[in-house]
Amino acid sequence: MGQPEQRTEGAGPFTTRRTWHRPDGGAVVWESRVARRRGVLSVRGPDGTAPVSASADATALGRLRRLNAVASGAFVIGGALFALGAAVAQFGSGDAFESASIYFAGGLFFNLGGYTSLLQTLNAPRHSREGGRLVTAGWRWWGYEPMRLDWLSTFVLFVGTLVFGVNLLDSFLQGLGAQQANRLIWAPDVVGCVLFLVSGHLAFTEICHRSRPCFRSRGLGWWIVAVNQLGSVLFMLSALAAFTRPATGSLVNADIANWGTLSGALCFSIGGMLQAFERP
Predict the structure, then answer these.
(1) Cβ distance 21 to 7 under 8 Å?
(2) Taking residues 190-198, what's their average pLDDT?
(3) Is the Cβ–Cβ distance between 28 and 131 less than 8 Å?
(4) Which of 11, 26, 101, 141 could be stapled to 46 by a disulfide with Cβ–Cβ 3.0 to 4.6 Å?
């Protein structure tokens, strides 16, 4: 039998879906996010029957389950701590150290969630060249694969969590002037928000298989990305409102800054809860 014909889809140089049309009339479909999160391919028989799933081996599936549990749990806890920190800042005693400590603890969980998401990408089963099965590679703690859209999205997300860490560390500094606060705290905050938004856009591109947004109400992965992207937008609004006016030394709008952080953090907690169900 001849080799199956291939059809690729994606955006720009990135391939996010690949279909192998077999000589017998059947087809095998690999989708980047589905294979990475659930460890499956979609297989349709030559008689046009409904597609069934072809799973990776037990090693890969167990690996994906464990990584998904850690990542989802980290985002749930991190988001909850960020929401708590914002609530303390808005309704608490006004002690900046108290809210900064809670934010910092939440940031550590975001770091863990971001890195684990990158590990999910690096250690996901890969499709074979001829199609029809998923291949499990050896475990890796790090890898550089910028031509993979899923790697790029999770890498940008991880870097964003690290930049937020700089912002959260600097927030412990006392006696800063307006310009110092904007340079050491506000600027890293904005950069981290931009990286989160970029990561979310790349995740949408992976799901939609094109650079333009799409709406897929029946797809759990789409809802996870959408909820997280809403959280990133709210984080950005919060960051912009947290700019310190040099003339007065006060924030542009402290209420928007706190409420934006609180609601955005809850979005990431909800996204983490949904992610717990996007597993093999």
Answers:
(1) yes
(2) 95
(3) yes
(4) 26
Q: What is the DSSP string of 15-42?
A: EEEEEEE-TTS-EEEEEHHHHHHH-EEE
Domain boundaries, the chain: 5-55, 58-275
**pLDDT at residue 179, as a whole number:** 86
Q: What is the pLDDT of residue 222?
A: 92
What whole-number distance in Å separates Cα of residue 112 and Cα of residue 269? Answer: 14
Mean pLDDT of the chain: 86
Query: 21 with 5: CB under 8 angstroms?
Result: yes
Each residue of 12-37: pLDDT tens digit?
Answer: 888 888 877 777 667 777 888 888 88
Q: What is the pLDDT, as a whole number, of residue 6?
A: 72
Using DSSP's 3-state secondary structure scheme, residue 12 falls into: coil
> Which one-letter DSSP state was computed for residue 134?
E
Q: What is the pLDDT of residue 254?
A: 85
In angstroms, the CA 52 to CA 44 distance is 6
Residue (of 165, 253, 240, 155) closest to 206 by Cα position: 155
Tokens 């863990």 sit on residue: 112
132: nearest Cα among 44, 17, 34: 44
Q: What is d(CA 260, CA 241) in angstroms, rounded to the nearest whole number?
A: 9
Tokens representing residue 267 in the block: 């979005």
**Is residue 279 within 8 Å of residue 68, measured between CB atoms?**
yes
Residue 1: what pLDDT? 45
Residue 61: partners with Cβ closer than 8 Å, 6 or more residues away: 39, 55, 280
Q: What is the number of alpha carbons within 13 Å of residue 74 lying toward its C-beta? A: 19
